[in-house]
Amino acid sequence: MRAFVLDILKTIIIYTLLCIATFLMSLTILQYSSFDEHVAFLQYKQEYMHIVRWKIAFYIHVFTSIFCLIAGFTQFSKHLQTGYPAIHRFIGKVYVFNILVINFPAALIMAYYANGGFPTKTAFMILDCLWFWFTLKAFLDIKNKNFRSHENYMIRSYALTFSAITLRSWKMILSAATTIDPDSLYMINAWLGFVPNLLLAEYYIRMKKNFILSSAESVSKNDPGK
């Protein structure tokens, strides 16, 4: 009964976060749907607005990253995995294609032109390359039926996908709590947007591994045949 209640609570928390994340991303998309070149973030990118590849990469990233967020979130549903495996696989392919083919090159271009100098560019380059690698590794693992590794790399991949939300959250916090200049704030925000996510993902993976090992040991000790 306790496990059932905890599972229900986990589901409620997960989908509440999904709704909040989707809402925040939708607000971001709506800001740019008019293609006004002087709105929100674009106010700080006026020097790059004439660069066609940057502009294309920006709008591709803005209008497609929300699908990574939604698709990735649904992939952790055990109900979907076991009850509707075909849908799980289809959404997974959409998630992988969106990151590897669409968002990786777009985000790489944006990272190259990031504000805040070398430290900020480095942060976004690392984020983008890790995002690509974790997603590719998860895809290769499932092709090779390495389910445990696939799940772990999907957790890492989604931790970086969720940086779209944590990046904006940290920006609001830092803007309200500090008076540092915009470029320095953006540099700090670039690292805070994904490093804590990765640390939490690794902690969760480690805790899950320890739980599986301890459960296996407990079953082994209680096995009357041994």
Describe this structure in a few short sentences.
By secondary structure, the chain is mainly α. The chain contains nine helices and no strands.
Defining key terms:
226 residues, mainly alpha
Largest sheet: none
The tally of structural domains comes to 1
Average predicted local confidence, pLDDT: 83
Which class do the helix and strand fractions yield? mainly alpha
Beta fraction of the residues? under 5%
How far apart are the first and last residues' alpha carbons, in Å? 29 Å
Broad shape: globular
Uncertain residue segments? none
Radius of gyration: 20 Å
Please tally the β strands and state the result: 0
Number of helices: 9
Helix coverage percent of residues? over 70%
> Which assembly state applies to the chains in this document?
single chain
Task: List the secondary-structure elements in sequence, H or E.
Answer: HHHHHHHHH
Transmembrane segments: 12-32, 52-73, 94-114, 120-140, 186-205
Pfam families: DUF2306 (PF10067)
Keywords: Membrane, Transmembrane, Transmembrane helix
Protein name: DUF2306 domain-containing protein
Q: How would you characterize this protein structure?
A:
The protein is mainly alpha-helical. The protein has one domain. It is about 80% helix and about 0% strand. The protein has helices at about 1-30, 50-75, 80-85, 85-110, 115-145, 145-160, 165-175, 180-190, 195-220. The longest helix is centred in the N-terminal third of the chain and has 31 residues, at about 1-30. The model has no long low-confidence stretch (mean pLDDT about 85).
